[in-house]
Amino acid sequence: MKICLTSKNRKYQQVIIIILALFGFTSCSVAEHEAEQVEAKTPSNSKSFTDWCNQKSKLPQATRHTVELLLKRADTSDCVKANQYLSKSTMLVLGDNKISDIKPLSSLTNLTSLWLNDNKISDIKPLSSLTNLTGLSLFNNQISDIKPLSSLTNLRAVSLYNNKIVDIKPLSSLTNLRLLWLHDNQISDIQPLSSLTNLEELHLFNNKISNIQPLSSLTNLIKIRLNDNQISDIKPLSSLTNLTDLSLNDNQISDIKPLSSLTNLTYLSLNDNQISDIKSLSSLTNLTYLWLKNNQISDIKSLSSLTNLTEVLLYNNQIKDKNCPLRKDVCWWVES
User: Which region is the signal sequence (predicted)?
Assistant: First the structure.
């Protein structure tokens, strides 16, 4: 399957290529402007893009703006030709376009990847019909209600960061998810994530989370970001033995013993917590980066077994003996 990335989308190409690689797509040259020849499937109870386009002059300004953007993407002013192109397209990039009304997208049911980040969107109901989506980008919008996403069970990657989301229950049905970005929202209850056992990467930093018990079932996780929350008990992380990348900065953690089982970790960041005892880290022999600044650590001898470390941040602790138990250039005592 091939997807065209035109020069109009250049700003997003690097990120898009990563997601496309995940889904097994290949890109094509701009010359191959025709979208994949898939039969368009428009629900009988919804308007086609042709309908929206033919009514363009009578539409509210916000809706008309979206129609005009879609005509531009189709590279035609002809409503029928635009509908033919758009209804066969499997990928659409509309990030950073001042969009607030996405109703004209509701009939584009062959889409598998949709980029709507950096807009002014609050109502995402029109997305509920796009059940072939595997990748969806909605970061930097004004979204609070994500119920319409519950029907999009083919999704593998979803980016919802920097919105106004509190309730994530609708995500519980998205069991095919591999990548999920939810940071910079207002989330406290993460119980709905417990069913997402295929997740490999999860970003939850800068929310209001204190209880991380629901994460204990996510044993396929490789990377998780939990910075800037209200976490004190990290026992639920002990089962996540596939983790290679873990960040817990700016929480209320004092006991890090549960981390001792995470022997695949290569990156661990624990800055700005209440940690004094780091003996439990001695089993993490695959670590290459360890960040421990702004804690209450006084003894670092237990780090001597971590011979793969290339960088340890230790400044703003209570360490008196500043002899690095590893190579001298590995330990950083003062912030540069």
Answer: 1-31
Under DSSP, the state recorded for 245 is E
The CA dihedral of 324, 329, 335, 336, to the nearest 10 degrees, is 160
| Domain assignment of residue 43, yes or no | no
Question: Domains in the chain: how many in total?
Answer: 1
Q: Which two tokens stand for residue 67?
A: 């129609």
Over the stretch 207-238, which tens digit does the pLDDT of each residue have? 999 999 999 999 999 999 999 999 999 999 99
Residue 106, domain member (yes or no): no
CATH code: domain of residue 301 = 3.80.10.10
**In the predicted model, what is the mean pLDDT of residues 287-315?**
97
Q: How many CB atoms lie within 10 A of CB 29?
A: 10
pLDDT at 27 > cutoff 80: no
Partners of residue 268 on adjacent β-strands = 246, 290
Give burial (CB, 10 Å; 0-12/13-18/19+) of 97: middle
Structural domain includes residue 291: yes
Whether the CB-CB separation of 103 and 63 falls below 8 Å is answered with yes
Q: Give residue 312's domain range.
A: 272-336
Burial grade of 148 (CB within 10 A; 0-12, 13-18, 19 or more): middle
- pLDDT digit string (tens) for 67-119? 999 999 999 999 999 999 999 999 999 999 999 999 999 999 999 999 999 99
93 assigned to some structural domain:
no
